[in-house]
Amino acid sequence: MDRFGLTTNNITYLVMGDAMNYWKFFPAEEPWGHMPVWGFGDVVASEAEGVPEGTRVFGYFPSASQLVVRPDRASETDFVDATPHRQELAAAYNRYLRTDGNDMYEEENEDYEILLWPLYFTSFLIDDFLDDEGMFGAGTAVLSSASSRTSSALAYLLHQREGVEVIGLTSPRNVEFTESLGVYDKVVPYDELDSLEREPAVYVDMSGNAKVRSAVHGHYQDELQHSASVGITHREDLGGGSELAGPDPVFFFAPARLQKRNEDWGAAGVNQRLADAWRPYVEWLGGWLRVEHGSGPEDLERIYRDMLGGRSDPAVGHVLSPGD
Ligand SMILES: NC(=O)c1ccc[n+]([C@@H]2O[C@H](COP(=O)([O-])OP(=O)(O)OC[C@H]3O[C@@H](n4cnc5c(N)ncnc54)[C@H](OP(=O)(O)O)[C@@H]3O)[C@@H](O)[C@H]2O)c1
């Protein structure tokens, strides 16, 4: 594996490592664990039929230079890792896409694919879910951690839907950046939530922040038509949802929604829709995302600690290589 991305999503894998089995993908000897990352790698040796040496793939890796997989269902587009310990884990993480069989792949956009594909994928599925549900009868979508890549990708998609107003909630320091993205109709710092008009709305929670969730539910009361829990960027302010006004929050898990759409549309139908929406999105990304490259454990630790401390610049995407 020669390059991978680092965003808050990777930290969430660790926060949820026990609860959602993320430590189990790439087991390490106690007390160590491998942080899962999304990246590109080359097949350097193969005894598997249909997976020739030299094949370049995109997928889920440990933050390490090498991974041994046991390819199954190999085709011209992808294969699945059938290593026994991965079989009980969510299927979406076990699939490796070949660059030579993937219509969406462009070598010059590898960094974007690493940094955004899994997040964009999630946003695509949330946008589709909200549309499928007729926005639960609401005209407004309120997104927390609006400066995050997952939220901005969702805002980008929702913004294109007629009759949907997209409101972003973010930290005061990220208001200006979030406004500059141009995909939110309104951007409001967390502590000014009360300035919003009370109208039928859905809440898509990327922050996991218990106080913000309670404030959103408290503000919209029965006008809140749906509350989706997606992320936990504010991992230090998590908490239960007792005594919330309005509907109970429902966890949105992208791999589960993907499974449903695979059944509805077939894998090829899903891939086609994703690819069609991906290209213009990448063009939009090119207008604001600055990619910074790093290499080796020192860069990884520095960037990881900045991210952990909430000091990262949301306009910067970090692409790393494992180093020697
Ligand atoms: N459920 C699913 O299937 C699914 C799928 C994909 C991703 N997700 C989740 O979506 C979330 C967003 O991931 P991402 O990779 O898009 O994030 P990202 O782009 O790295 O998000 C950065 C933003 O998160 C907030 N943040 C990050 N670290 C923080 C800290 N230490 N303290 C306070 N705020 C912090 C800040 O936003 P604000 O200032 O705007 O709050 C920051 O601008 C993650 O929790 C991820 O796991 C869930």
List keywords for this structure.
324 residues, alpha/beta, eight-stranded mixed beta sheet, six-stranded parallel beta sheet, globular, binds NADP nicotinamide-adenine-dinucleotide phosphate
What is the fold's blueprint, element by element?
Layout: E1 3-6, H1 8-15, E2 36-42, E3 56-62, E4 71-72, E5 78-81, E6 95-98, H2 110-132, E7 140-143, H3 149-158, E8 165-170, H4 175-180, E9 186-189, E10 201-205, H5 210-220, E11 224-229, E12 250-251, H6 254-286, E13 290-295, H7 296-308, E14 316-321
Parallel strand pairs: 7-8, 7-10, 8-9, 10-11, 11-12, 13-14
Antiparallel strand pairs: 1-2, 1-14, 2-3, 3-6, 4-5, 5-6
Helix pairs in contact: 2-3, 2-6
The chain binds NADP nicotinamide-adenine-dinucleotide phosphate.
NADP nicotinamide-adenine-dinucleotide phosphate (NAP) is lined by residues 7-9, 12, 119, 122, 145-150, 170-171, 174, 206-207, 230-234, 252-254, 307-310, 314.
Model regions low in confidence, pLDDT < 50 over at least 5 residues: none
Helix content: 25-40%
User: Strand-and-helix sequence, N→C?
Assistant: EHEEEEEHEHEHEEHEEHEHE
- Outline type: globular
Major β-sheet annotation:
8 strands, mixed
Name the average pLDDT: 95
Percent of sequence in beta strands: 15-25%
Count of alpha and pi helical runs: 7
Structural class comes to alpha/beta
